[in-house]
């Protein structure tokens, strides 16, 4: 089983053998990567970005390993930028890092036709009942 973790242009591949031992392989992003960037906005606002949210992109590779790409800077700035493989479909998860809970999941297709894609996230109903109560007490 392998788990791939990426942070912008650096990728860590963790391979776990049957005995539970792990080894890591660092590699630079492939040349067929596309820059995917965006911002995290509160409802009805396209100026102020939200902090304490993190965007995670996940896909299953041909070898059935799971590739996970996280831009941790999004927690501090409300903006993210990652390099994703062109022509692939990723599950994008928006996570509220204060409570470590998922508030939204979307499927994102990374086009081969562009070198940069923009994917913004908008919180639709940040109240105490939305997202399973994840955002109870949250104020944008």
Account of the protein in words:
The protein has 140 residues and is mainly beta. It has a single domain, classed as Immunoglobulins (Immunoglobulin-like), CATH 2.60.40.10. It is built from one helix and eleven strands; from the N terminus they run E-E-E-E-E-E-H-E-E-E-E-E. The protein has one helix at residues 74-77, and strands spanning 2-7, 10-16, 22-28, 33-41, 53-60, 66-70, 79-85, 89-96, 101-109, 116-118, 121-122. The strands form two sheets. Strands 3-2-1-6-5-8-9 form a seven-stranded mixed β-sheet. Strands 4, 7, 10 and 11 form a four-stranded mixed β-sheet that branches. The termini are far apart. The model is unreliable at 1-28 (pLDDT under 50).
What features would you highlight for this structure?
140 residues, mainly beta, Immunoglobulin-like, 7-stranded mixed sheet, 4-stranded mixed sheet, 1 helix
In short:
The chain is mainly β and 140 residues long. It has one helix spanning 74-77, and strands spanning 2-7, 10-16, 22-28, 33-41, 53-60, 66-70, 79-85, 89-96, 101-109, 116-118, 121-122.
N/C terminus separation: 40 Å
The name of the CATH superfamily reads: Immunoglobulins
Low-pLDDT sequence parts:
1-28
Question: How many whole angstroms does the radius of gyration measure?
Answer: 16 Å
CATH topology name, in short, is Immunoglobulin-like
Number of helical stretches of at least 4 residues: 1
> How does the helix and strand content classify structurally?
mainly beta
* Domain tally: 1
Reading the helices and strands in chain order gives EEEEEEHEEEEE
- Please estimate the helix content: under 10%
At CATH level 2, the architecture is: Sandwich
Oligomeric state: single chain
Shape: globular
The CATH class designation is Mainly Beta
Mean pLDDT: 75
Strand line-up across the major sheet? 3-2-1-6-5-8-9
Beta-strand residue fraction: over 45%
């Amino acid at each position: 089983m392998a788990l791939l973790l990426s942070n912008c242009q650096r990728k860590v591949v963790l391979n776990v053998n049957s005995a539970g031992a792990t080894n890591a392989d660092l590699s630079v992003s492939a040349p067929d990567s596309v820059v995917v960037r965006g911002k995290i906005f509160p409802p009805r606002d396209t100026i102020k970005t939200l902090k304490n949210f993190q965007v995670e992109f996940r896909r299953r590779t041909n070898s059935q390993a799971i590739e996970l790409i996280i831009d941790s800077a999004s927690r501090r700035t409300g903006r993210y930028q990652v390099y994703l493989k062109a022509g692939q479909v990723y599950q994008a998860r928006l996570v509220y890092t204060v409570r470590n809970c998922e508030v939204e999941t979307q499927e994102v297709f990374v086009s081969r036709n562009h070198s940069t894609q923009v994917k913004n996230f908008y919180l639709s109903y940040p109240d105490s009942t939305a997202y399973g109560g994840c955002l109870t007490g949250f104020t944008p």
